Amino acid sequence: MSKIGQISGVLCILMCTNFGLSQNRNYPLHFEMQNRHDEATLKSQSSIHSSMRPLNMHFVKDVVDSAYFDSTKVYSTFHLKFLKEHLFQIRGKDFSIYIDPLFTLELGLDFLDTSGRGTIQDEGGTFYTNTRGFQVQGDLGKTFSFYTSFYENQAFFPDYLRLSNINRAEYTWTGSSWKGGQSVVPGEGRTKEFKGSGFDYAYATGYISYSPTKHINIQFGHGKHFIGNGYRSLLLSDNAFNYPYWSVQAQFLQNKIKHNFIYAYMQNLYRIPEHSAPEATYIRKNGSFNYTSFKPTDNVELGVFEGIMWNVYDAETGTRYAPINSHIPIPLVNTAIYGLNDTLHNALIGLTAKVDIGNRLMAYGQLMADDLSNSRWGFQLGAKAFNLIKGLTLSTEINTVSAFSYAHENVWHNYSHYNQSIAHPYGAGFFEWVSYARYQLPNRFWVSYKFNMATMKGDWTNANNGSDIFLPYSETLSSNDDQANLQFHQAKIGYRANIKTNMEIYAGFNLRHFHSDDNHNSLYSFIGISTSLNNKYYDF
Question: Residue 211 is inside which H or E element, if any?
Answer without folding.
Answer: strand 198-213
